[in-house]
Design a protein that fits this description.
The structure is a homodimer. By secondary structure, the first copy, chain A, is mostly helical. In chain A, α4 packs parallel to α7 and α7 packs across α8. Chains A, B: GO terms for molecular function: DNA-binding transcription factor activity; transcription cis-regulatory region binding.
């Protein structure tokens, strides 16, 4: 009941707590994208930027490391359901997903977090475990299945093919090149080139 | 002549100015590797850390951007003379060179500088032009020659193969994986896999 004694008017859209959570995660990303990275994020700064009280944040996240990992996770697109018919088709879906993730804010966040990784080992461990490894496991699954079906070489070292796919598609490879030097079908060409290299 | 009227005793090792330059570049790298990246570098801070006066720095570098680009260049190993006999041999030399560059301090510097790239566009332009592009040109040269000799596919898109090689070998691909998950012959396996993908 509101203070007037009437029930509060129904709000359009998300309930208040979901909107606050959204604002907190977005504020965290904004701060991470700034030059100081993890060092620039504090519960105070996030609260001020998100327009919420600190307790609203602490109710959901016990410390800034957990908040940061959850915020970083929002930058990753969900991996779509893989068709599972051919390795090529699945790798295309993955490569296109990774390509779409590489906008500038995502890149800045990622670089700033990684650049401070040595100072925040627990944060990085959690990030690897909760955000990165589940995605790498999806890729490994596709490659394993390809070996089983005979689409890929039986002696393929999955731990080599995996960073080749991820490294080709992610910002490191592109950050230093003018973006327009990459062909529009870059993701497809990477998959087909890699596939020729790892096919049976 | 020194103030005592005698000629100064010969100093062992590098002359004083070369030693100062070395100290200045090393101090700049130390500061770049810290979390604030470019924002943490100032002529004052470099002078203090290198134990030199600010004028010693200004005598050689008119501003911090030029100093930073020169400092970043010291992190890159010189590309060895390429044998030029086969594409495979040349790519192996390049991949091994890139692999050896990926120590933690190099990675931190690079990530911190890239993370602030949007704020320092002139610095990034200069870095691309003076440090990165000459290296990319060496790789392009190897790939072009491979197409001419028929070792590589005639329709190879060099601008796809190039980021695949660089991206596979650089920290992005490795930063998020435990280093020991990569096989010791990672560079060789990357080149052979890529080569199967781009060979004629």
């Amino acid at each position: 009941m509101s203070e007037t004694g009437r029930p509060p008017a129904p709000r359009p859209g998300r309930p208040r707590s979901a909107r606050a959570e959204q604002a907190i995660l977005a504020a965290t990303i904004d701060l991470l994208a700034e030059e100081a990275g993890v060092a620039g994020v504090s519960i105070e700064a996030v609260a001020a930027r998100a327009g919420v009280g600190k307790t609203t944040i602490y109710r959901r996240w016990p410390n800034k490391e957990k908040l940061i990992v959850d915020a970083l996770a929002t930058l990753k697109r969900p991996i779509p359901e893989l068709p599972g018919r051919t390795v090529r088709e699945d790798l295309m879906v993955l490569a296109r997903t990774f390509a779409r993730e590489q906008d500038r804010k995502h890149s800045r966040c990622f670089l700033n977090v990684m650049g401070g990784a040595d100072r925040h080992p627990e944060l990085m461990d959690r990030y690897r475990r909760e955000v990165i490894e589940p995605r790498r496991e999806v890729i490994r699954g596709v490659l394993h299945r390809g070996i089983e079906t005979g689409e890929l070489r039986a002696d393929l070292d999955i731990e080599v093919a995996l960073p080749m796919l991820v490294g080709s598609m992610t910002l490191q490879a592109r950050a230093l090149a003018p973006m327009d030097s990459l062909p529009p079908d870059f993701a497809e060409q990477v998959v087909d080139t890699l596939l020729r290299g790892i096919a049976a």
